Amino acid sequence: MSTQSIIRITKEFKFEAAHALKDYDGLCRNIHGHSYELKVTVSGTAIRDENSPKLGMVMDFGDLKKIVREEIVGQFDHSVILYKKMPAKLISDLKDQFERIIITDYNPTSEEMLVDFARRIKARLPENIELQYMLLRETVTSYAEWYAEDQTD
Predict the structure, then answer these.
(1) Which of 39, 45, 49, 106 has its C-alpha lying 20 to 30 A from 84's C-alpha?
(2) What is the 3-state secondary structure (H, E, C) of the chain?
(3) Is 1 part of any domain?
């Protein structure tokens, strides 16, 4: 068996969150919620060390799960996500009433959330593992995708 084969593995996650889009020209300017589904795909070569408990794995699914839960799901689940340029009084009032308010440097669209998630996940991956793909589904029929090959940074 070749030790150079690149293999992709994917782990799926679910979380609930609400957001509002600043200055949007439709209903999504109002706070509303989604049952988000996130798929994360990484790639690498399988571990060939016969003494490793991870022999044959690109990455332990449990290790990937830990990273995504700590960086994304654990923080965003059951939260309200708002752009920092939303009205200060709104942000203040929500923070006074609720615990899980996330203020972002971006308008929290699925597209921008994926860019944020990619940055967070890539910073935690082992050096021999590459983030390849992510899909963030916000409704049954609507999702955004992030591909490593499309990135310029």
Answers:
(1) 39
(2) CCCCCEEEEEEEEEEEEEECCCCCCCHHHCCEEEEEEEEEEEEEECCCCCCCCCCCCCCCHHHHHHHHHHHHHHHHCCEEEEECCCCHHHHHHHHHHCCCEEEECCCCCHHHHHHHHHHHHHCCCCCCCEEEEEEEEEECCEEEEEEHHHCCC
(3) no
Asked whether residue 83 is assigned to any structural domain, the reply reads yes
Residues of the chain above pLDDT 90, percent: 96
Q: How many domains does the chain have?
A: 1
6-49 tens-digit pLDDT:
999 999 999 999 999 999 999 999 999 999 999 999 999 999 99
Residue 78 has pLDDT above 70, yes or no: yes
Q: Is residue 19 part of a domain?
A: yes
Is the pTM for the entire model greater than 0.90?
Answer: yes
Residue 32 maps to which CATH number? Answer: 3.30.479.10
